[in-house]
Each structure stands twice: as structure tokens, then as C-alpha cells.
Amino acid sequence: MRIRWTVKMTALMLVFLVGVLSACSGSDIRSVDPADVEVGLKSDPSPAKASQPVTLTATFDGVEPAEWAKAVLEIRVDGSMKLVDAQKTPEGGYAAKFTFPKTGTYDIYVHLYQGDFHVTKLKKLEVS
């Protein structure tokens, strides 16, 4: 009788552990190929205006960022790099405010960090 109870409890514990591990992992980000990830970038207002605050919003297709994932916008301004942390939006994108100093085309590298996973995509933004 004791052996049967031990076997049942062991099986129950195993099922419980598998369930907990499955719930914690969510979608397995390790199976995502960064080359398959697409990034969208929009500005508000659109088009972006020089010397005025702009909200930049990045969206990701091909990956489901976790709630704790981090997004950073790396904006190139006159040969230097400006890093801007983006905050998760209720719609699932990542938004940050930035003021572009002058008109022109800006290179913006959008970074997504989630654990060991990191993807970077270059987007261009025209500022008038």
C-alpha cells in the first residue's frame, strides 16, 4: 500500500513540475531566428518635425516579447549615438520620446532584449 501511495505522489509531483516549467517558459524565444523578426517604427506626429518632441513607437513581428523584455532605440545624431529606453505600450509596442535637432534622415537601431535573446534592426526616419 505504501509503495502505491509513493508512486502516485511521485507521478503527481512530476505532472506539477512539468506544468510549472511550461507556464514559466511561455513561448520559447530560443527558437526564434532573429532574421525572421521584423520591426516597424512610426512617429507621432508623422512626419516627425525637427526641434519638436516626437513619440517613436516600435513594433515587433515574428517574436512575442515577454512582459519584462526591454527595448532600446539607438538614434544616430551627427555621428554620435543617443540611447533611449522605450516603455511597453498597452498595444504591445514600445514607445519613447525624442527631439531631433535638425531636419534630415536619421538611422535608428531598434534593439529588443529578452534574456539571452537580442535582436537589432535598422530603421530610417525622415525628419522635416
How much of the sequence is in beta strands? over 45%
Could you give the order of the helices and strands?
Answer: HEEEEEEE
**How many DSSP helices?**
1
| Main β sheet profile | 7 strands, antiparallel
Please state the structural category.
Answer: alpha+beta
Helix content: 10-25%
State the low-pLDDT regions, or none. 17-26
> According to CATH, what is the topology?
Immunoglobulin-like
What does this structure look like?
The protein is of the alpha+beta class. The protein has one domain (31-127): Sandwich (Immunoglobulin-like). It has one helix at 2-25, and strands at residues 38-44, 53-61, 70-77, 80-88, 94-99, 104-114, 117-127. A hairpin with an 8-residue loop joins strand 1 and strand 2. The longest helix is centred in the N-terminal third of the chain and has 24 residues, at 2-25.
